[in-house]
Specification:
With about 300 residues, this protein is an alpha+beta fold. It has two domains: about 160 residues, Ribosomal Protein S5, domain 2 (2-Layer Sandwich), CATH 3.30.230.10; about 120 residues, Alpha-Beta Plaits (2-Layer Sandwich), CATH 3.30.70.890. Helix content is about 35%, strand content about 30%. The strands form two sheets. Strands 1, 2, 3, 4, 5, 6, 8 and 12 form an eight-stranded mixed sheet that branches. Helix 2 crosses helix 3. Bound molecules: adenosine-5'-triphosphate. Adenosine-5'-triphosphate binds next to helix 1 and helix 2.
Length: about 300
């Protein structure tokens, strides 16, 4: 218990989505997870998490993308807030409102973003004043991507993705994200990856020296050449249309394309703002995809309204 007092007014936190510039997947571990080496980048598609004091946990949803998001205690934002209350030994509860813009089940870590936002918001609401690293240890128990979304920027993730260290990255990267009609279940994509690789030697994952060097120099063409995702064949195997979306986007001038995380969102890296608009128009007007989002990265992780995370 801390001596701090709970605020009575709402606390608002803006949290970004992520794209994996590189996702290397090792063999399955004894605990069922896979060891990963991944380079995350936080991008400018945001959910907003608002928290206010309440007698019991409450969750309400609004925004463009709420289909399939649980509106009960199963929501990752509620679970994160409850885990923080428990770890801090306090009895406070919160009403959590999510305004969702991040595609759901799209491989952009929307649920993890909301969990990161709930941790940062409740930390402020309850006057805990815990540093980010302490919040990150709770985050890591709840989901592999959550620690990264507390920090944001561009970072190397290891372990199952929950151990993050910042990566030196120059420049701003312009992205077009092609949204798919349905979602893909992350466990199903990993299972398909294991199935496709059965009988082959899968080495321990390592980040590519080439990508780290390209990010240091800020050369977008070099970065484009080094993007890669070991889950892509599995995502395409489960959702074959993704292969067509990738080909179409490349034919319309994207510098590179890859499935975002476990998919089914496809991420296109483009040369700049104009190229992003051109590609978006081409993909939607030709009917290749139903909807797109443009974003830039890197951006910071979970931010309190009007300032930093803690
Ligand atoms: P990741 O890339 O982290 O594997 P994702 O981006 O593919 O995840 P999410 O949008 O995080 O997928 O949603 C995955 C599932 O998590 C959803 O289908 C939903 O059932 C559940 N979920 C729980 N809480 C949330 C939340 N706050 N927002 C979105 N989904 C949530």
């Amino acid at each position: 218990m801390t001596g701090s007092t709970t605020r009575t007014t709402a606390v608002h936190v803006r949290v970004p989505a992520k794209v994996n510039l590189e996702l290397r997947v090792g063999p399955p571990r004894a605990d069922g997870f896979h060891s990963l080496a991944t380079i995350y980048q936080a991008v400018s598609l945001f959910d907003t998490v608002s928290v206010t004091p309440a007698e019991d946990w409450q969750i309400t949803l609004s925004g463009r993308t709420t289909e399939g998001v649980p509106a009960d205690a199963g929501n990752l934002a509620v679970r994160a807030a409850a885990a923080l209350a428990e770890a801090a030994g306090i009895r406070q509860r919160a009403a959590i409102r999510l305004t969702k813009e991040i595609p759901v089940a799209g491989g952009m870590a929307g649920g993890s973003a909301d969990a990161a936002g709930a941790l940062v918001g409740c930390n402020r609401l309850w006057g805990l004043d815990w540093p980010l690293d302490r919040l990150a240890s709770i985050a890591a128990e709840l989901g592999s991507d959550i620690p990264f979304l507390l920090h944001g920027g561009t970072a190397l993730g290891s372990g199952r993705g929950e151990q993050v260290v910042p990566v030196l990255a120059k420049g701003t990267y312009h992205w077009v994200f092609a949204l798919a009609d349905g979602g893909l279940s992350t466990p199903a994509v990993y299972a398909e990856c294991d199935r496709l690789r059965a009988g082959t030697h899968v080495p321990e994952p390592r980040p590519s020296v080439g990508l780290l060097g390209a990010l240091r120099s800020g050369d977008v063409l070099d970065v484009a050449e080094c993007l890669g995702n070991d889950l892509e064949p599995a995502a395409i195997s489960l959702a074959p249309k993704l292969g067509d979306v990738i080909e179409e986007g490349l034919s319309y001038g994207a510098l590179a394309a890859l499935v975002s995380g476990s998919g089914p969102t496809v991420a296109f890296l483009v040369a700049g703002r104009e190229a992003a608009i051109d590609l978006s128009v081409a993909l939607v007007s030709t009917g290749v995809v139903r909807d797109v989002r443009r974003a830039t990265g890197p951006v910071p992780g979970a931010q309190l309204d009007g300032g930093a995370a803690s």
